[in-house]
Specification:
mainly alpha; two-stranded antiparallel ribbon; two-stranded parallel ribbon; about 5% strand; globular
């Protein structure tokens, strides 16, 4: 299967690679036995919010095996985890000799990318997975709190359900709900994951800014070279294209619902980190990303292109603009026009729901 797993065999917006996905696992495959020794499918979702002190011997052994495999070849291992931000502190404790880099994307454009895949390619995977991540960890008190504050509803996934059955439950849930419901689930996971990043993290990189700011890309390149001791280049192909960023700013949900989701996410961050959560360096980064998401919901990606690297580094500019947008929205919601058009506005999400159901089929 490996040769067929390439960036150009699906609508990925990924750069064209010289080798297929997962090519580095080929030497670890064994004739007559499926998979890689030591790998468990449960690694992808179980213990997503594992504390630093958690004992996860199977996961640790598997990652250690990958590191040893690279070392035997005289290579330097670089591991990328698509869904492990919630356990970065665990990674740091168990692999202290590594450089730990968190790659974050603005929640609005990340969700928008998943929404785009569903609407244009009938691919619900990237919308369903955040729901299933939460469902697999719903017994965690942090997850329960996030679901309550964001008023997010999850698909019913039996504990014994395998990956295929769990995804099927997620797809059914998408057909029965609206984009605002999907965004609540996604934002609950994004916010909890972002908040779980320890202040001791070596580096945080904003992928949207890699695409939109040459200054930010150059600064990130220099910083990573200093951290790793390896000179390399972050080209424009290493980030989402400008067109992909613009397309993924379409969220599907009404602006009012998106704004309310962001307000709930801020409440969740205050509940988890206290009233001064935004005063830390990492908290400021997360707060600026939420403010940026608010502005995208109001103005589209033009707000991203208007930002210089110097203004990107100044979170106060983003927060001030977001506050002005919020005040304007408050005035709209309190207006007589908003109240009298309530029934007319409800037609739009019902129409969209039928379109989503068609796309899902």
């Amino acid at each position: 299967m490996l040769p067929s797993l390439r960036a150009d065999t699906w609508s990925s917006h990924h750069p064209r690679l010289t080798r297929p996905y997962y090519h580095e696992y080929a030497p670890l495959l064994r004739n007559g036995t499926p998979g890689v020794d030591g790998f468990r499918r449960a690694f992808g979702a179980a213990n997503f919010f594992a504390d630093a002190a958690a004992e996860l011997p199977e996961l640790r052994a598997y990652i250690a095996m990958l590191l040893a495999h690279a070392a035997k070849q005289g290579r330097r291992p670089v591991l990328k985890f698509c869904r492990s931000i919630g356990r970065v502190a665990w990674m740091q404790r168990n692999f202290p000799g590594a450089v730990h880099v968190v790659v974050l994307r603005n929640p609005a454009t990340q969700f928008g990318s998943a929404y785009w895949q569903y609407i244009h390619n009938a691919n619900p995977y990237f919308l369903a997975m955040p729901m299933l991540m939460l469902a697999r960890n719903r017994d965690d008190a942090r997850v329960a709190e996030a679901l309550e504050i964001l008023r997010a509803t999850l698909p019913l996934v039996p504990a014994e359900a395998d990956g295929k059955a769990a995804l099927a439950a997620g797809y059914d849930h998408l057909r029965q709900t609206l984009p605002a419901d999907w965004y609540r689930c996604f934002l609950a996971l994004w916010t909890l994951a972002a908040h779980s990043i320890p202040e001791s993290i070596d580096c945080v990189i904003d992928t949207d800014l890699l695409a939109l700011s040459t200054s930010y890309r150059a600064a990130s390149q220099r910083g990573l070279a200093v951290l790793t001791g390896v000179p390399f280049e972050l080209g424009e192909d290493d980030a989402p294209s400008d067109g992909a960023v613009r397309a993924s700013a379409v969220l599907g949900a009404p602006r009012a619902a998106v704004w309310q989701c962001h307000q709930a996410a801020t409440v969740l961050l205050s509940a988890r980190g206290g009233p001064d959560w935004v005063d830390t360096e990492l908290g400021a980064r997360i707060g600026a990303m939420l403010a940026q998401a608010n502005l995208i919901a109001m103005d589209g990606t033009g707000v991203l292109r208007a930002r210089t690297f110097e203004r990107i580094a100044n979170r106060h500019d983003l927060l001030a603009r977001a506050e002005r947008a919020e005040r304007a929205l408050d005035e709209v919601y309190a207006s007589y026009f908003w109240r009298v058009t309530t029934k007319r506005r409800s037609i739009h999400p019902r129409f969209e729901s039928s379109q989503h159901e068609y796309a899902g089929r």
